[in-house]
C-alpha cells in the first residue's frame, strides 16, 4: 500500500564519543522513508530542500524506490542544517547549531497523485503543518504522527487538535510524561489515548518500547548491541519500520501491531550501527528478517 511521508530533510554534523560525521543526510522524513522503503515500493516523500541538495542525495532516495516528486527545491536557499554532540552514555546530547534555512518557510503541498495514499506518516514538524497535510489528503486508512518536546511545550493546543485526527501516535517516554503531566507511563498512555489516538507507542530508548491498544499493553525489548555509533534518527527509523510492516501486512490488528513494533525496533537497531542514514541505505531484506527473528528469540522460552 502507498505511504505518504511528510517531514524534514536535513544535513547533520554529528559528533559522538566514537567519531564524527559531517554533512550527513538526515531529517525525520529521510529516516522514515528509507526505513519503510524495505517493506513498500510506494513511498511518497514531501519536504523542502535547498540548492545544496545534490544529485547524489536524490540518487540515494531513488535507489531505495522513494518517489521525490513532492520534494520542493528552493533554488536560492540552503537545506536545514543541524549539529550536535552526544555524551558518553549516548542518551543525552547537546545541540550545537540549528539553521532552519528553507525549512523555516516550509508549507507542505501534497501533489494530487499523493493525496490518495492509504497510509500517512507525519514526521516531527509543527503540528499546524501536520494539520495542513491532513486537510489535503483523501480519507487515508491510517495516520501516524510523531512529535517532540519543542512542540509539546510550544504549541500544546495545536498538537492536541491534530491528535484528534490521528490513529497511531509515537513519542518517547519523556515526551509522554510532558504531554500527559503524569510521571507514570501507564497513566500517561491512558491520558494521551483519550486525546484521540487509540494506538500509542512510547519509546524508551535502550529499554525498548511499549505499545498501548484497547486490548492491552505489549512490551518489546531493545536489541542488545555491542557497538552504537550514532542514535540520531533511531526514533524516525522505528516509525518507518513500524509503518512499513503494517503496509506490507495489509491489515491492522493486535498481532500485526505487535509485529510492527518489533520490525520498527529491528530497523532502529540497524540505524544506530552507523552514522546518519549510512546503514539504512544499504540493507538486505534477509538481514532485516534475521534481526526480527532475533527480537523474537530474546524473550522466547522453550517448553
TrEMBL record:
* Source organism: Prosthecochloris marina
PROSITE patterns hit by this protein: PFKB_KINASES_2
Molecular function, one GO term: kinase activity
Q: Which Pfam families match?
A: PfkB (PF00294)
Asked whether the UniProt record includes Kinase among its keywords, one would answer yes
Question: Which keywords label this protein?
Answer: Kinase, Transferase
Q: What is this protein called?
A: Sugar kinase
Query: What Gene Ontology terms describe where this protein resides (cellular component)?
Result: cytosol
Respond yes or no to whether keyword Transmembrane helix is given for this record.
no
List each copy of the Carbohydrate kinase PfkB domain by range. Answer: 23-278
Which first-to-last residue range defines the signal peptide? none
Amino acid at each position: 500500500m502507498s505511504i505518504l511521508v511528510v517531514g524534514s530533510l536535513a544535513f547533520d554534523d554529528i559528533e559522538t564519543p566514537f567519531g564524527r560525521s559531517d554533512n550527513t543526510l538526515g531529517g525525520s522524513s529521510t529516516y522514515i522513508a528509507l526505513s519503510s522503503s524495505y517493506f513498500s515500493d510506494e513511498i511518497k516523500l514531501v519536504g523542502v530542500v535547498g540548492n545544496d541538495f545534490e544529485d547524489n542525495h536524490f540518487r540515494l532516495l531513488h535507489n531505495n524506490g522513494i518517489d521525490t516528486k513532492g520534494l520542493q527545491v528552493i533554488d536560492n536557499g540552503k537545506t536545514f542544517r543541524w549539529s550536535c554532540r552526544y555524551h558518553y552514555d549516548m542518551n543525552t546530547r547537546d545541540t550545537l547549531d540549528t539553521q532552519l534555512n528553507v525549512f523555516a518557510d516550509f508549507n507542505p503541498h501534497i501533489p494530487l497523485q499523493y493525496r490518495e495514499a492509504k497510509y500517512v506518516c507525519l514526521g516531527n514538524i509543527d503540528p499546524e503543518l501536520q494539520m495542513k497535510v491532513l486537510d489535503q489528503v483523501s480519507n487515508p486508512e491510517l495516520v501516524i504522527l510523531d512529535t517532540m518536546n519543542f512542540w509539546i511545550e510550544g504549541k500544546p493546543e495545536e498538537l492536541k487538535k491534530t491528535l484528534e485526527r490521528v490513529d497511531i501516535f509515537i513519542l518517547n517516554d519523556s515526551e509522554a510524561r510532558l504531554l500527559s503531566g503524569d510521571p507514570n507511563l501507564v497513566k500517561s498512555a491512558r491520558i494521551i489515548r483519550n486525546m484521540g489516538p487509540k494506538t500509542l507507542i512510547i519509546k524508551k530508548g535502550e529499554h525498548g518500547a511499549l505499545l498501548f491498544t484497547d486490548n492491552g499493553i505489549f512490551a518489546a525489548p531493545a536489541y542488545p548491541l555491542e557497538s552504537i555509533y550514532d542514535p540520531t534518527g533511531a526514533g524516525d527509523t522505528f516509525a518507518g519500520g513500524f509503518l512499513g510492516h503494517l503496509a506490507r501486512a495489509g491489515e491492522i490488528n493486535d498481532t500485526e501491531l505487535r509485529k510492527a513494533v518489533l520490525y520498527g525496533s529491528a530497523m532502529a537497531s540497524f540505524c544506530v550501527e552507523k552514522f546518519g542514514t549510512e546503514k539504512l541505505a544499504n540493507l538486505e531484506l534477509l538481514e532485516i528478517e534475521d534481526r526480527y527473528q532475533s527480537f523474537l528469540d530474546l524473550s522466547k522460552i522453550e517448553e
